Amino acid sequence: MTNKNKPYRLRLPGPTAVPERIRMALAKPVVAHRGPEFAEVMAETGQLIKPLLGTDNDVMAFTSSGTGMMEAAIANVMAPGDKALVLVNGHFGERFVQIIEALNLKADTLVAPWGEAVGADELAMKLRDDDYRAVIAVHNESSTGAVADLEKIGSVVRNSDALLVVDSVSGAGGLELQQDAWGVDVVVTASQKALMCPPGLGLASVSEKAWSIIEKGAGQARYCWDFRRAREAAAKGQTAFTSPMPLIYGLRESLRMIHAEGWTNTLERHRKLSSALRAGVGALGLPTFTKCPMLSSTVCVFEVPDGLDGSAIVRHLYETRGTVIAGSRSKLKGKVIRVGTMGCITDEDIRLDLEQLEGALSDLGWAVEAA
Amino acid sequence: MTNKNKPYRLRLPGPTAVPERIRMALAKPVVAHRGPEFAEVMAETGQLIKPLLGTDNDVMAFTSSGTGMMEAAIANVMAPGDKALVLVNGHFGERFVQIIEALNLKADTLVAPWGEAVGADELAMKLRDDDYRAVIAVHNESSTGAVADLEKIGSVVRNSDALLVVDSVSGAGGLELQQDAWGVDVVVTASQKALMCPPGLGLASVSEKAWSIIEKGAGQARYCWDFRRAREAAAKGQTAFTSPMPLIYGLRESLRMIHAEGWTNTLERHRKLSSALRAGVGALGLPTFTKCPMLSSTVCVFEVPDGLDGSAIVRHLYETRGTVIAGSRSKLKGKVIRVGTMGCITDEDIRLDLEQLEGALSDLGWAVEAA
User: Which of A71, A104, A196, A242 to mutate to test the interface with B (most CBs of B within 10 A)?
Assistant: First the structure.
């Protein structure tokens, strides 16, 4: 059995540490999910989430993982025979391709090297040459720390018949997102990243342009994730199927905390702390892996120098300091380490990250040059 | 705003009241979902659930509502062109037909009047006449209180090529279930009924006969709910996608409580308390609606006499006593009331149910005859 008294610090790029105030909200008594008490919770939560996504749409809630919401988005906007264009620059772009293929639909890709981002000009050219039902982008590619320039991408896609579908699972709540202004048609996200909740709750926000496709009955092969049913329920302050109530209590609490800090202050804190971590870890000799113009505020990804193994750093930090960061589960395995900088993190977290990482690197024989 | 100081007693046939001990488990700190600490939780939970389902299968966990698990079961065992035979005797049987049709698959039905159950002889005849990929049964039809005789149904289906798929969402944990002995191929259930947890966690247990179909790639059009991926993850004490950790902490606590009481004692308590409620409410002049040989231990459904409106009883109990029971959301609307008798209920709950219901009926002008 693991030692219950060992210190433990969760510094993954999700799931992220959940503040006590939110954990206590999870423990509230369960009430009737279609009664007036819960409708109030849904209504407040539904209002508080809108500024984080930059939308006036009614946001729909689902019992779902982040991947479930990616699948739901595809299943709703695409019909048999439809083709999507997926912007792939990391693990989650690749996952979208897998999902689309698992649903017997077609995916073309626009690929950028991992750590970079697909450019809007390249996308514009591709959209002139071919017809797509949807362009699929990952807002914050947490496998690499690359952020998609959704404003530019949106300005290209809005002039086509395609819908812009965005996975902001590890973005929303920690990165600026202006769904309506940028012309994003479908945004999906989940509870366990910058929204500071445990996993289990998915959210989706859908534009009028997307509704016009979804309502025509595109993508028939789904039941629980049918956005039409969810929209009807959302209009009554409900979910279509029994709601994951503790997580909605938790999300309400999280959103209250974010608005108490001030949403723009929350964004600024994420920017400042992620920059500080990148500067500090760079000084330890581990440069930032990400090369694209927009660096993530929610996850920092670092190159592991030759002679060091990323997995060994992750393991050693856990075993000696009880701090859990991430390596890579994909083709960067061993070559990068990844640290979450989203949710309830503070200056103190970054200070500890740097102190512990410096210690761990030194234990592993890495001679840190004087900065 | 609703009055936060009003008494509140949740007596629905799900979601059910969650004991404080389980609510506190939901609030435990989130850890890495693929780390050793959480693997221990998964392993313990995975062992403790088996006796409740009567299986040696590894039980898979999903971020899902109950309906999601119904859809997942269909999506995994049925491929395009396949036909299912759905035993329909209430709302959830009808929902299975809707799901199958939404997935562009074919459903035949064997229908029994609501409150009764489809007989095994009729099923045997149907299976001789036609080929089905799956026979779909609802263990505990919570819209009517009817329990399917799965032992008999299983003995018929096991002699065919069809798989027996069972929704035990409102059964498992409160009704006897012997998946392996009865020849049930797929059992799905969810956290928010007799398992005493909030909604958000789905479970599935799959027989070797079903795996042989699923592994051949039946039902391609799914990603998150692909049982093959879930099985691989379950073998490592994980879930395929980020796990709804608070609910798994909660389920572990629930299962510890059930095994501390003794699983057969838990079943006996459900039987005893549901019988007591039926006897008491019958004495108030509201007979049990359910007519089939096996009455539910987890939900009691009562006929509302002419001159009374079920919805008015439900509303009045809530408004004057803060007690939430259910009416019907389907064709029995106004004609029945439904009370959950599952999860953490005690003698005291039944006593209060009867006292409050007698009072409410009297308020509404119903002259209760001396029993």
Answer: A242
